[in-house]
Amino acid sequence: MKGRLVALGQYRGREAAALVVDGRLEDLLVAPADDAAPAPGAILRGTLDRFVKGQGGVFVKLPDGMTGFLRETRGLTPGQPILVQVSGHAEQGKALPLSTRLLFKGRLAIVTPEAPGLNVSRRIRDEDARAHLQALAEEGMAGSDFGLILRSAAEAEEDETVAEDIAALRALAEQVLADAKGAPELLVDAPLPHEEAWRDWADPAPDEVDDGNDSFARHGIDDLVEALLTPDVKLHGGWSMVIEPTRALIAVDVNTGGDTSPAAGLKANIAAARDLPRQLRLRGLGGQIVVDFAPMPKRDRAAVEQQLRAAFRGEAAETSLAGWTPLGMYEIQRKRDRLPLAEVLQGAAL
């Protein structure tokens, strides 16, 4: 299976989307259960509750008895209604992380009410194309104080399509911001997998889009997903790693198997470093991550860390590479931008 494939189908009875590049699963989206908390991107109207000085934030009352936590507190008073956007997934037993910096995302554009200014993606390098898109942005946002970002996918689209996307997002943003007062309510839900896939996997354009109900089975994606539900990961070169979520952190153990040669540790660790971001993304894992790399000389640590930094560079989830601990572990902090895949699939049909 060569090229870039987007499969829009179902997995265990849930709406799902998969991005496969040259036969390798690169991204996966599976709809959560109907009673799951709002996902990142959802916009809600809440009511400010109590400030927590020790944690530097304020709790927010949300619809259906849910609670969120907001760190931006300047100018806020308890009891006032407020518009917030879910910015991540909550740890078990904790409040939903929220932000007041609303983003209205489309396939071609992003409207930013709290960040004025008209911008074109830096990935668009052609100066004539940038100037043309800038003119479309100015026309579409004329008379508005909202900001706008035109995404790289806009370069390949017709002017009318770009203008329609801008107009739809602007109208939605204006409607939501005009509805700031009242009881807690869900105003804009997070996109489901098919919509999110069209929005975020359009650039570069896929070579094939299969939106049949049996698309996952037809392309062998079911088997690729099943492999993510076990902790064992086979790496290029015959090495392996084990990824095990615990309550406190994500533990990663890199193994060389039966190869005890002096070079085995470095080779296995480089293979693990290159594949770790993809594995965390596909499994929906974030938070504190501790990697126990295979034994290697200390002089080789710089080479492994270089591979880690290169591998995480293109990740959408905010990631901090904290570095080596005194005991030789490597610590990573990754934003919880998705629910763990195993948690999403709890209760799903087999």
UniProtKB/TrEMBL annotation:
SUPFAM superfamilies: Nucleic acid-binding proteins. Keywords: Cell inner membrane, Cell membrane, Endonuclease, Hydrolase, Magnesium, Membrane, Metal-binding, Nuclease, RNA-binding. The keyword Hydrolase applies. Its cofactor is Mg(2+). The keyword Membrane applies. PROSITE patterns: S1 (PS50126). Residues 41-70 form the S1 motif domain. InterPro entries: NA-bd_OB-fold, RNA-bd_AU-1/RNase_E/G, RNase_E/G, S1_domain. This is Ribonuclease E/G.
